[in-house]
Amino acid sequence: PKEIFLKDYKEPDYFFEKVDLNFQLGEETTLVFSKIFVSPRVEGCLAPLVLDGVDLKLISLKVNGKEVKGDDFHVDSRHLTLSSLPSGKFTLEIVTEICPQKNTSLEGLYKSSGNFCTQCEAEGFRKIIFYQDRPDIMAKYTCRIEGDKSLYPVLLSNGNLIEEGELEESKQYAESLTQNLDPCTRSHAMYSLKAAMKWDEDVFGLEYDLDLFNVVAVPDFNMGAMENKSLNIFNSKLVLASPETATDADYAAILGVIGHEFFHNWTGNRVTCRDWFQLSLKEGLTVFRDQEFSSDMGSRPVKRIGDVSTLRSYQFPQDAGPMAHPVRPHSYIKMDNFYTVTVYEKGAEVVRMYKTLLGASGFRKGMDLYFKRHDGQAVTCEDFFAAMRDANGADFSNFMLWYSQAGTPRLNVVSNYNAVAKTYSLKFSQEVPPTPGQPIKEPMFIPVALGLLGSDGKDMPLSSVYHDGKLESISNNGQPAQTTVLRVTKKEEEFVFNDIPERPVPSILRGYTAPVRLDSDLTDADLHFLLANDSDEFNRWEAGQVLARKLMLNLVSDYQQNKPLVLNQQFINGVKSILCDSSLDKEFIAKAITLPGEGEIMDMMEVADPDAVHAVRSFIRKQLAAELKNELHNTVKNNRTSEKYEFDHQNLLRRALKNTALGYLGSLEDAEMRELALHEYKTATNLTEQFAALVALDQIPGKVRDEVLADFYNKLQHEYLVINKWFALQAMSNVPGNVENVRKLLDHPAFDMRNPNKVYSLIGGFRGSLVNFHAKDGSGYKFLGELVVQLDKINPQVASRMVSAFSRWKRYDEMRQNLAKAQLEMILAANGLSENVFEIASKSLA
Ligand code: B3K
Ligand code: ZN
Fold this sequence. Notes:
Helices cover about 40% and strands about 20% of the residues. It has about 850 residues and is of the alpha+beta class. The chain folds into four domains: about 5-175, Immunoglobulin-like (Sandwich); about 185-395, Neutral Protease, domain 2, CATH 1.10.390; about 410-520, Immunoglobulin-like (Sandwich); about 715-845, Zincin-like fold (Alpha Horseshoe), CATH 1.25.50. Zinc ion binds next to helix 3.
């Protein structure tokens, strides 16, 4: 397979000005008529025109209305090459035949669950017609679709509807679209869309530019959604919501994803990427925009906590493994493999840093300039950087390194208080770890928001800081600041604060202003102090997490040495005081009493030990549940929601806290608590509470668990999205030997390997059980290895997502390493392996 490099980018020799498409949808094959108006970039161009085309049958080919002769074109399995072209502009008419009914890759044009659907990003358009399939070809399109009216009553395409009507033989056609949403979509998705439209106008001054906007739900879809202009397509799980079939988390995800796709209209469609390496230009920016949107619609600190947890649990491990790549990758074999947490989530952190450095109004100025300069263009990450810089006259020194250097920087801080001089110093040092192809790194530009707490727990006023041989004043409209943003740009660097009356407790990296791993010399007492007092809610939560991580790592080491596990009282008291603090936001409490995830702890170990990490996390949960049983029980009783479900902030908070408490109680092997969970299950008026009760009951194997799981299936079997949750719950179970149960579920009548959501639930879910996926006998690895090979024949994109679970195999003990490696080798040896899986598997072994 061929690797494609950023450094090899060349402008196209030919531009396409206009493209007219006509689809004749059929039951055996579909015919696509394309008429392309071509113009050479440079007058008198003699270069051949190379069109991409995969799995296409060429029916006819005309240039300027004349059939092209055999000598003047060449077709192979990837390209159609045309030579002896007219000089100057010309038209190209091509008729292509495709088989959407046989297309299980869900890329290009495919038919599934009775619908025709397209997916063109990143390189799927070449599976529909012969085309220069690259993002810098920006043409005007018209699109006509013809199909059987009874089978395909609704025909939707991009842009405004020009014309629609009837044809003979009960066929109809449309040159665009009609609004058609099912009623339950209308409520929450429509609410989300309207909110997103208003938000973008208010916050960025960006308006929608067409008369129509369609939201379509598709049950068989590889990703979450796709931002096709005026025709956003969604995986149905990210659109369809009713209280009985979607949880609060689903409602929140829908809000975010509807927003995300809508926001792409400006950041992605009107201004797009020059080439796919620039993907984060639109994705990092649009994720940032959807995060901000969700923050404004709900609780900002809680949203931030959730986003940072995702970054730590998924992006940090990626950045530390064999698939580590910069926010702007340097090369790829299959672009689809680079729709990653690094490009999306770390990319969003990079955009957030501009805002941290420039402030809200400076950031807005930068965005305004970006659109002013680049509306209608295909551009690069440098163009975005330049707009931010130029609009503000800003000095960003080496900021661009965030786009080119992979790996999570480590930032270390050492503090010192001088009681005589009344100065407080913070010494920063940074290190960016080596990653594949990048052994040596430069220091990064790290914005660090900082506050200093006095012994009264309040922020000290900060007036000046001595840095780099200069005294810099810190002020907030003339007033001393409570939080300041330090710019750490060197390998080692010191900041000294003046007029500090007592030794402060520093609150470093408030709001998590940079995607780094922070180490500091804060003591446990300092962390407890921050947990109780920090005015920055994110750092309050963070202090608790740092304490919990330390505790968990210590217990893991006790476990490995066969020492008895003991939970210290101070930690229990800390959790108790948060749980019982009625002044706190309930959703914040839920986050603050939740332990760091198993993946996060594994990621911090020299050799990852899944059994120990799982045992320790379960032990702490159980101990806390036992010690705080009354408080947790009261929390459940006091936070049941009212009869009618509403996705409103007040009720959402109550459910978040109640469900977290119930989860703790479910870990106890206690008949009374099981009754409680069963009661919650039976009396729930919405899926959020019902499913949380099911999750609580799922923890203890036995008759009750089996009966409730069966009951849930019987009642909700017609709701396929809910049944996917039911699959996932069982797949993630830590019951020893669960792999056999998961194998059986593959034959369940509701399972279907061709539906990505089902695969993500059952097979993806299984990878979530540390003890079973990493089982010492290799049964988990073998299960996944076999499935990847099977899946690859159906849908390479989905298979490739599944194989990535193996990529960090070197993090485990030798026995597990050998078992995982054997699976990767087996996969690579499979016949007809896709490039998608090949890329991940081979890079994992390298
Ligand atoms: N841009 C699409 C993702 C396309 C994925 C291609 N394999 C969805 C999004 O980010 O909104
Ligand atoms: Zn996106």
